[in-house]
Amino acid sequence: MSDRQSYKSDLSDERWVLIEPVITSWKARHPSVSGHQGNYDMREIVNALLYQSRTGCQWDYLPHDLPPAGAVKYYFCKWRDDGTDQTIHDLLRWRVREQRGRLADPSLMVLDTQSLHVAAGVLAGTTGRDANKKVPGRKRGLAVDVLGLVIAVVVLAASVHDNAFGTALLDKVAANAGTVQKALVDQGFKKTVVDHGRQVGIEVEVVERNPTDTGFVPQPKRWIVEQTNGILMLHRRPVRDYEHRTASAESRVYWAINDRLSRMLTGTSTPAWRGA
User: Fold this and answer.
1) CA 59, CA 44: separation in Å to the nearest integer?
2) Range(s) of the domain holding residue 108
3) What's the rounded Cα separation, in Å, for the pair 237 and 90?
4) Cα(230)–Cα(4) distance, rounded to whole angstroms?
5) Are 216 and 178 contacting, i.e. CB atoms less than 8 angstroms apart?
6) How many other β-carbons are positioned within 10 Å of the β-carbon of residue 249?
7) How far is CA 156 from CA 16, 66, 152, 189, in A?
8) Per-residue pLDDT tens for 127-160?
9) Does residue 47 lie in a domain region?
10) Cα–Cα nearest to 114, from 275, 235, 237, 232
11) Dihedral angle at the C-alpha atoms of 231, 235, 240, 243, nearest 10 degrees?
12) For residue 195, which phi and psi values (nearest 5 degrees)?
């Protein structure tokens, strides 16, 4: 850690200890071409990613006392492409669940989607219009456990039907979290998702809305995914989709949640917008 003035998004020593083994192991497997370990402190690279996640700034607007934007982007892309971001996330999620007295992997999950506007410059071929919510842009699908912890994320054009998100999320969960036995979904997901759940060994239950309800009424157990969407809104980068690649948008979710999980494990809170 350098002697620069700290930012509120910086990792504390306790939070860095949780992430450092994964980063150190990755770095040992990926030495530079010349054989040295590189010019940049890996903790500062992660601090830069968390700063960008929290503030939403562009690459070129990263503060000058953090590593150069080119170096930070290099590691972001490397960790996105080889799954290091998700590896960190999954290890932290397992620890949080165990800290809460639960098994490392869940048996029940909740699926939902959220449509987002995109920024100027996002490739038109990766966007669309959500016909129901009248939102042009992309749609983010989440699978979360009963604690609201993310199990899987999928980002596609907003025009893509929830059925495609449901099947993609089920496939990801079946491949990476084989203990999941049941998924709760809303009425936007149809029989296609239920049938696909049977194929991958996950029972899908469509939770129907009470016809007498008006406005937003939280549904038992299913409401937890809405809480997770709200937590993502504390991080300005995932509020709007700025990423050229949908894989980058998915990685942004993992980094935002990594921040939350490391804070949960160390008993620290995420600063509110008004105080940041």
Assistant:
1) 15
2) 104-242
3) 21
4) 32
5) no
6) 25
7) 32, 32, 14, 16
8) 999 998 899 999 999 999 999 999 999 999 999 9
9) no
10) 232
11) -120
12) -65, -40
The interaxial angle of helices 13-29 and 84-99, nearest 10 deg, is 140
Name, in order, each residue with C-beta under 8 angstroms of 56's C-beta and a sequence gap of 6 or more.
235, 236, 237, 239, 240, 242
- With CA atoms as reference, report the closest residue to 177 among 242, 107, 247, 238: 107
Residue listed under structure tokens 């410059």: 121
Tens digits of residue pLDDT in 217-270: 555 578 899 999 999 999 999 999 999 999 999 999 999 999 999 999 999 876
DSSP code string of 99-143: HTTS-SS-SEEEEEEEEE-B-TTS-GGG-EEETTTTEEEEEEEEE
Question: 3-state class of 275 per DSSP?
Answer: helix
Strand 203-206, strand 182-185: pairing: parallel
Contact 17, 1 (CB under 8 A): no
Phi (first) and psi of residue 107, to 5 degrees: -110, -20
Q: How many CA atoms lie within 13 A of 218 on its CB side?
A: 7
Q: What's the number of domains the chain is made of?
A: 1
Token representation of residue 25: 């192991």
Structure token digits, residue 211? 């016809």
In this structure, is residue 70 part of a structural domain? no
Could you write out the DSSP letters of every residue in 199-254?
A: HHT-EEEE-PPPTT--S--PPTTTHHHHHHHHHHTTSSTTTSB--SSHHHHHHHHH
Residue 16 lies in a domain: no
pLDDT, tens digit (0-9, with 9 covering 90-100), for 199-210: 999 999 998 766
First-to-last alpha carbon distance for the chain, in angstroms, is 22
Q: Is residue 65 part of a domain?
A: no
Q: Which amino acid type is present at position 42?
A: M
CATH number, domain with residue 224: 3.30.420.10
Mind giving me the DSSP string for 65-93? TSPPHHHHHHHHHHHHHHTHHHHHHHHHH
- Rounded to two decimals, the pTM is 0.91
